[in-house]
Amino acid sequence: MKLNLKITETGLEPNFPPLIGLGSASEVSVPVWVYLTESPDPLAPEEALLLCERTQGEWVAWIPEYGEAILYRQQFFGIGEGG
Question: Which residue in 13, 24, 32, 26 sits closest to 71, CA to CA?
Fold first, then answer.
């Protein structure tokens, strides 16, 4: 499975649920572990450590057995959110 790192401009504002127990992005205390909706590598775990928010909805993350990656909000969810 590969991550789709290309954003399509639709003009619609995304409405992602907040990370459970973390509040809004400006209130997120990073680093924090999240689950991935898809792993960038079949051998990498389906979890990542969010390091910082790069732009609104775009995060720098570290994925074990893979390394650093840029994730978009729809590519991960917090503990208790479900996929």
Answer: 32
The per-residue pLDDT for range 8-24, each reduced to its tens digit, is 565 655 555 555 444 44
Token pair of 60, please? 């720098």
Contact (Cβ atoms closer than 8 angstroms) between residue 51 and residue 45: no
Q: Of 13, 16, 23, which is closest to residue 73 (Cα–Cα)?
A: 16
Residue 33: CB atoms within 10 A of its CB come to 12
For the stretch 11-66, pLDDT in tens is: 655 555 555 444 445 556 678 899 999 888 888 889 999 999 998 889 999 999 89
Task: Find the distance separating the first CA and the last CA of the chain, reported in whole Å.
Answer: 16
Q: Is the pTM of this model over 0.85?
A: no
Find all residues with CB under 8 Å of 27, minimum gap 6, and list them.
Answer: none
Q: Would you say domain 25-77 falls under CATH 2.30.30?
A: yes
